[in-house]
Amino acid sequence: MRPEQWQIFKKAAKRQAVAAVPTALIVDSPWIPGYLGINHFDFFLDPEVWFQANARVLREFPDVIFFPSWWMEYGMAIEPSAMGARISFAADQTPSMRAMLFHLDDVDRLAPVDPYADGFMSLALQRYRMQKQRIFDAGYTIPVATARGPLCTAAFLHDLSRLMLNMAEDPAGVHRLLAYTTEATIQWLKAQADVIGPSVEGIFILDDIVGFISHEFYRKFAHPYLKQICDAFPSDWVKVYHNDASVKQCLEDLPDTGFDVLNFTHKLDIGEAHRRTGGRMCLMGNVAPLDLGVRGTPDQVKAAALEVLRKTEGRNLILSVGGGVSPGMPKANIEALVAAAREFNESLVEHR
């Protein structure tokens, strides 16, 4: 994104007055290579391909705030790669992970994560070192450090089914694992901020696994660790949380973690989310990313976006899809989102 777009996003995130409801989309390797017809190996491993791919997307959609902006990631492999999970690559899709932490008793044997040396973290940091000045010189900014959340990373390490089972059978062991993944998450975010520099003014955490558990387990196994992450960074930073699973059971609790923005599933009515978060979070959504974003027509996408805008009256809102941009979302449907925001914003001006 451009620096002026970050200022708009930051104001909206902090629930300050903005001249118009912004449109923002979370984009990364599941969408960009397919959209541009790029081999995933080239996108991940060739710095020039990565740079030109990001630059082209930004040029094609100048009215969209692409978030988190110039994201150096390897699908979801960065965090687990630094902790011992097995990573497999393919030419036409993002990497897959295989859990290798079979017993929670082995958590205490895991060495602390060093982001500057371990796994793909070290490679991503080097890409930022090499490319950041070029990005800044091109008129863009890198304002956010990004990481998978503690439960998501724990599931990659320990296997999701084992993790869920052990929440009931070995809660102490799960807490030891989450303490480990939380500290690793914080150190990874801090390393990105250190390498990228003072342009970083926010964090972005993705953790869908929080949506798989009950409210009781959310309070035990999710809330304290999410709050610990937010508390580790300045209060004036923008803090964005993505979970496109179910967050219905914890909507009232999420604002207390310290996150400013919630990007959440389209299956939860945005009016309900708006009411239950009590104006304490900015909502980023909420058009269906697959059923409409990929499979729908531009007219359907525009109608759904206008409905989101109508239900919220544009307050505490960043217009988006209910999650990241799904592979296969076409240009026309992205343009339909922009058109809906423009129409709504123009109607606000007319009524003032």
Can you characterise this structure?
- With about 350 residues, this protein is an alpha/beta fold.
- The chain has helices spanning about 5-15, 30-35, 40-45, 45-60, 80, 120-135, 150-160, 160-170, 170-195, 215-220, 225-230, 270-275, 300-310, 330-350, and strands spanning about 25, 65, 85-90, 95-100, 145-150, 200-205, 240-245, 260-265, 280-285, 315-320.
- The protein has a single domain, classed as TIM Barrel.
- Strands 5-6-7-8-9-10 form a six-stranded parallel beta sheet.
- Helix 13 links the parallel strand 9 (about 280-285) and strand 10 (about 315-320).
- The protein is globular.
List keywords for this structure.
352 residues, alpha/beta, TIM Barrel, six-stranded parallel β-sheet, two-stranded parallel sheet, 14 helices, 14% strand
Q: Tell me the major beta sheet.
A: 6 strands, parallel
Physical arrangement of strands within the biggest beta sheet: 5-6-7-8-9-10
CATH topology: TIM Barrel
Q: Considering DSSP H and I runs of 4 or more, what fraction of the residues is helical?
A: 40-55%
Tell me the fraction of residues in β-strands, as a range. 5-15%
Architecture (CATH level 2) name: Alpha-Beta Barrel
What layout of secondary structure does this protein have?
Layout: H1 3-13, E1 24-26, H2 32-36, H3 40-45, H4 47-60, E2 65-67, H5 78-81, E3 86-90, E4 93-98, H6 119-137, E5 144-148, H7 150-158, H8 160-169, H9 171-196, E6 202-206, H10 215-221, H11 223-231, E7 238-243, E8 261-264, H12 270-276, E9 282-287, H13 298-312, E10 317-321, H14 331-350
Parallel strand pairs: 1-2, 5-6, 6-7, 7-8, 8-9, 9-10
Antiparallel strand pairs: 3-4
Helix pairs in contact: 6-9, 7-8, 7-9, 8-9, 9-11, 13-14
